[in-house]
Amino acid sequence: MEEKDYIMRMIRQFFAALASILFYKKIQSYEQEQREIENASKSLLGLDFDLIKSLEAENIIEKLSHNNDIDYDKLLITGRLLFEYAEIHKINQTIPLAFEFYSKSFKLYMKLLMSDYEIQKDMDVLDDIVIFLNEYELNNDTKFLLSIYYEKIGKFAKAEDLIYELVEKNYDSIFKHAQDFYLRLMSKQDEALIKGDLSKDELQEGLNYIKKIYPTTATI
């Protein structure tokens, strides 16, 4: 009960802080918006925002974990604060910094999405991050996460394109991931596959290709 009350209180505080951040964003008072982001980080996460900015996404996740148990609520807050900070840099045309913080935010949101944490209200934020990142050359780790993102939102052909690209680059564990991707989609209804721009025949063709170049993958 006490833990539930704590979580609800933190959520209310986050929405209040976010409302303030978005207000200053709307009136283009970006210095004040940044101060609100920093204040939210300190009060809601107990972490200095300068520390968060300096850490890689994996280290942020470690910071927000206790005994390997991730605090997903705080992870969501951190992902959103990094997104809003990246937005400031995009507006100010400091694009390398915008890219850095969009990328960190993306990885945190993907950790949430892959953990089946409810982020429906923030999916538009994740979509905006992907739109920005797709304007630039991405490393293989980010492309791998993008393939998962596209599968999650039902854009299966886009996911397959990235998987093929990573297969050609012999990306770590991509053959097992590719096989699992095709097997998962095989179980979906034709309607979902049509919306995702793939057919059962194309899935079988893709799976056969993976089995041909990586024979140790399992058969259906």
Overview of the molecule:
With 220 residues, this protein is mostly helical. The protein has two domains: 2-133, no CATH class; 140-213, no CATH class. It is 75% helix and 2% strand. It has helices at 2-26, 30-45, 49-54, 57-63, 72-91, 95-114, 123-133, 140-152, 156-168, 174-186, 190-195, 200-213, and strands at residues 65-66, 69-70. The protein has a two-stranded antiparallel ribbon. Helix 4 (57-63) packs across helix 6 (95-114), helix 5 (72-91) packs antiparallel against helix 6 (95-114) and helix 8 (140-152) runs antiparallel to helix 9. It is elongated and about 55 Å long. The protein starts with a helix and ends in a 7-residue tail after the last helix. The model has no long low-confidence stretch (mean pLDDT 93).
Fill in the keyword field for this structure.
mainly alpha; 2 strands; 12 helices; 2 domains; two-stranded antiparallel ribbon; 220 residues
Strand count, sense and closure of the main sheet? 2 strands, antiparallel
How many domains, in number, for the residues? 2
Q: What's the pLDDT, averaged over the residues?
A: 93
Structural class: mainly alpha
What is the CA–CA distance across the termini? 47 Å
Low-confidence stretches: none
Count of helical stretches: 12
Strand portion: under 5%
- Tell the overall outline: elongated
Helix share bin:
over 70%
Order of helices and strands: HHHHEEHHHHHHHH
Count every beta strand, where a strand is a DSSP E run of 2 or more residues: 2
For the CA atoms, what is the radius of gyration? 20 Å
